[in-house]
């Protein structure tokens, strides 16, 4: 990924949101990763929809994919590795198709990338632990758990790894160490509540985990309230790295449904860009139309 001075890139929005909008029931421990097995063409179609909306970065459907999770469906390690690689192949295929379709389109964004999603350990538990952190595992144990999946995705052809929705600085430490060992580019994005990680640590201290690590090409926040983004940008900027932000729509999950008002807006995205965010997108409930509006705003600025 290349970030031109002063430029703002747009990432995609909620992959699972769009899959549900297409009629898929994701009430499954594997969440959207189940469709890597059952309906991979649908994942590619959603990537394509976000690229048509002028997203420049597609994030793969590997967030909740794990060796443990797929083993419960009877898949062996080779099968799981194949599915992890498939998550990248689907995004790459959609990216290449978008590039070919937009060669003569002056409004199309210059450059598109694929980010291989590395979700937290808590996501694989499928019990909401990624919004609490503090799993009772040591940094070394987390490092051992993440390594096999990270190694497969690091070699699958993505442009960057997305260490995303990380709730705990200890888990970030494990992931950053693995990325350093493998020598692959990655961004690190925490899920936060106010100015603290979901595990209760200072966000400023959590960002410090990535300071001085050249393999970490951006730091920021995702899967959080839009109101929490602006303060986080200032704290993330202290690392000297580009800042990435992709919050939720602002609606709240009550355990069964989303409710409350949508607060994600183009106006807020413009504030994030003015504050120094270099990559802006969305997470849960952020749709292609939202990303298209953010992209238009970024091109005007």
TrEMBL record:
Free-text comment on the cofactor: Binds 1 zinc ion per subunit.
PROSITE patterns in UniProt: HCY (PS50970)
BP terms from Gene Ontology: methionine biosynthetic process; methylation; S-methylmethionine cycle
Hcy-binding domain location: 1-298
Statement: the UniProt record of this protein carries the keyword Transferase: yes
Cofactor(s) needed: Zn(2+)
Single GO molecular function: zinc ion binding
Keyword Metal-binding carried by entry: yes
Binding site for Zn(2+): 223, 283-284
Keywords, comma-separated and alphabetical: Metal-binding, Methyltransferase, Transferase, Zinc
Gene3D superfamilies in the cross-refs: Homocysteine-binding-like domain
InterPro entries assigned to the protein according to its UniProt record, in alphabetical order: BHMT-like, HCY_dom, HCY_dom_sf, Hcy_S-methyltransferase
Pfam families from the UniProt entry: S-methyl_trans
Cross-referenced PANTHER family: HOMOCYSTEINE S-METHYLTRANSFERASE-LIKE ISOFORM 1, ZGC:172121
Protein name: S-methylmethionine:homocysteine methyltransferase
Gene name tied to this protein: mmuM
